[in-house]
Amino acid sequence: MIPWFGTVAALAIAVGLYIGLLVAPTDFQQGEAYRIIFVHVPAAWMSMFLYVVMAVWAAVGLGLNARLSFMMTQAIAPTGAMFTFLALLTGAMWGKPTWGAWWVWDARLTSELILLFQYAGVMLLRTSIDDQRRADRASGVCALVGVVNIPIIYFSVQWWNTLHQGASVSMTAAPKMATVMLTGMLLMTFGFWMYSLAVILSRARCVILERESLQLWSKPSSVAEVAGVR
Amino acid sequence: MYWGSLSEFLEMGGYGLYVWTSFIITALCMVWEILALWRRRAAAIAESRGIVRDIG
Amino acid sequence: MLQAVSLSCRRGDRRLFSGVNVTVQPGTLLAVVGENGSGKTSFLRMLCNLLAPEEGAVLWHGVDIRRLKEQYYAQLTYIGHLNGIKDDLTATENLLLTAALTGDRPSEASVRDALEAVGLKHRIHHLPTRVLSQGQKRRVALARLWLSTHPLWLLDEPFTSLDQAATALVTERLRSHLQSGGLAVVVTHHEVALPSEMVQRLRLDG
Amino acid sequence: MSRPGLWETLRGIIWRDVLLAIRRRSDVAISVLFLVIVASLFPLGVGPEPAVLRTIAAGVLWVAALLACLLSLGRVFTADYLDGVLEQMLLIPQPLPVLVAGKVFAHWVVSGLPVVLLSPLLGLQFGLEGEALGMLVLSLLLGTPTLSMIGSIGAALVLGVRGSGLLVALLVLPLYVPVLIFGAGAVTSSMAGIGGEANLSLLGACLVLSVFFAPWATASALRIALE
């Protein structure tokens, strides 16, 4: 499964890059700098989407007391944090030439920054609790509580009339070019999505392995079973 | 193809620095994540094999 | 009647005990014994729903306590290995407040009687418990037993840091509780000096 | 055996914490003093220009109040956790979220309310007058209970965890941001003559939301912490 997702991700990103960098025409208002959106927007979408997915797994884990769901939350957090960081960084790269500033205290930027802190909080809370079960559940509650920030990020552009442009990338160019841009962006998003799936699933496998070895240390009786399986 | 020449492509209408930094850092982050995971996985497998050998 | 049905406990990655079946009838006491780290405290905390069992269930009169929740809490008096008293409040205040919260409504006179019953002299009733010794603090915590009107008592090492006189007093209080049809589960290293028909032992090991 | 009413139990919970705060007045005094000191540092750092001070007043005072609240969060559950009172609270025959709400209310009374009462004085220091001053007090009155509510979730999550003081700041501050924005916004917009009512109603909405959800989240966090 993981190699399959990986291959699809590589293909989609390759085609997306080809369209975004080579085929898509320039944007009349923003010039070539707009091409950053081909990584910026997918990264920002993934950062929010992954947080929601993480929170859903946390809710499932807390509700059904399922250890596997907590392993999924643990596997998602680093990738989500990485995309949040990338969204902020590419945003700054885009902001400097277009707004003339690396950073502005606009609602969307601020709330995305907060999202990064939330990812950090969830991960740090987990690592600072020694008891595995408590670490799982406490960071799960933490992830769930933070979900209130997602609609705030998503709607911030509409609620506060700020510098950051609207959600659907404002198409100042002719509609036909817009379609090309949109195709490129959606392909990139799809690629990032598949990439996340591959990375997260493989990290989840690592987590399972690590926890298994931890258990083996204290429970030698089951070594035979595990050895038999492997 | 939108671009006339390679240098034009690299320049990005004067925004080359910003555009390429964004793309390259994104790529680096992803590659780094994959590598880190790969090593983590190798370590996890090695450890669990080691335990199985030690105890079992 | 309190029942534990195939109760299993895992702390971290260690399995402490599994498949524990035990029934406590009214008028009897369950003495839980075992080495350090054998899961005695975890077992007691499962009985009062502070700790979720990995497998199995605890039943109060045949109903799962996770379903009863507050109705079940209204039946029990739990004294953990922590005293649960506030250092900045006096012994009297501590008992009055705790008892009021758990559903007993003692008068100040009955609180005074309870404190005297555990052998605390009247003049220290009105000192902040901060100035009391370990043993005296434990006595303040155990004085709740003289105020308790609840049928089920869950006690974690009640005799630690008590002297012989106080141990005898608490044992006597346990006897009168059982004689009036109460139930008790006591985690302890000490022998409980009660007639053998009242005491049932549960040994937890591995 | 009679089960006491919910109100009676709540009163008991609140009264115990208020009584403890009265016995340990220094704890309350410290967080109030902290607020005053933080607020007084700004004029020293920024310079005594009255026009500048008036423009930053709302933000500075709100941030100071927020930090004072953060500082006092350790007191909500930690002492009770260490002496076993928290364990007993989980076994009180009443719904835990309601008890938690009572406890958080007590925390607000001893740490949030003093901030609200002191704020007009600090506002005057920064040259706030009339309507803006009133708006500052009002916004703090509506906002600080929300801070206590949200903070209690963080405080419960990090109970007994190493490095909990810094961790709770990381967990809680992101969630404080909306309150800070609306609170300071109320004062700023009333100074600009737009009237702060819109921001006040948003603060009210935050309060209502947090009163509904925070005690529930805190209660589950406490159960997790005490397992």
What does this structure look like?
The complex is a heterotetramer of chains A (230), B (56), C (206) and D (227). Chain A has 230 residues and is mainly α. Chain A is built from 8 helices and no strands. Chain B has a domain of 33 residues. Chain B is rod-shaped and about 65 Å long. By secondary structure, chain C is of the alpha/beta class. Chain C is built from 8 helices and 9 strands. A 5-stranded parallel β-sheet of chain C has the order 6-7-8-3-9, sandwiched between helices. In chain C, strands 2-1-4-5 form a 4-stranded antiparallel β-sheet. In chain C, helix 4 packs across helix 5. Chains in contact: A-B, A-C, A-D, C-D. At the A-B interface, helix 1, helix 2, helix 3, helix 7 and helix 8 of A face helix 2 of B.
* Gyration radius of chain A, rounded: 20 Å
Structure summary, number of beta strands of chain D? 0
**Low-pLDDT residue intervals, each spanning 5 or more residues of chain D:** none
How confident is the prediction overall: mean pLDDT of chain A? 82
Topology:
The complex is a heterotetramer of chains A (230), B (56), C (206) and D (227).
Chain A lengths: L1 H22 L13 H28 L2 H33 L7 H22 L3 H15 L2 H11 L15 H44 L4 H7 L1
Chain B lengths: L5 H6 L4 H40 L1
Chain C lengths: L1 E10 L2 E11 L4 E6 L5 H8 L7 E6 L2 E2 H4 L1 H4 L2 E4 L11 H12 L5 H10 L16 H9 L1 H4 L4 E5 L7 H16 L3 E5 L11 E6 L2
Parallel strand pairs in C: 3-8, 3-9, 6-7, 7-8
Antiparallel strand pairs in C: 1-2, 1-4, 4-5
Helix pairs in contact in C: 4-5
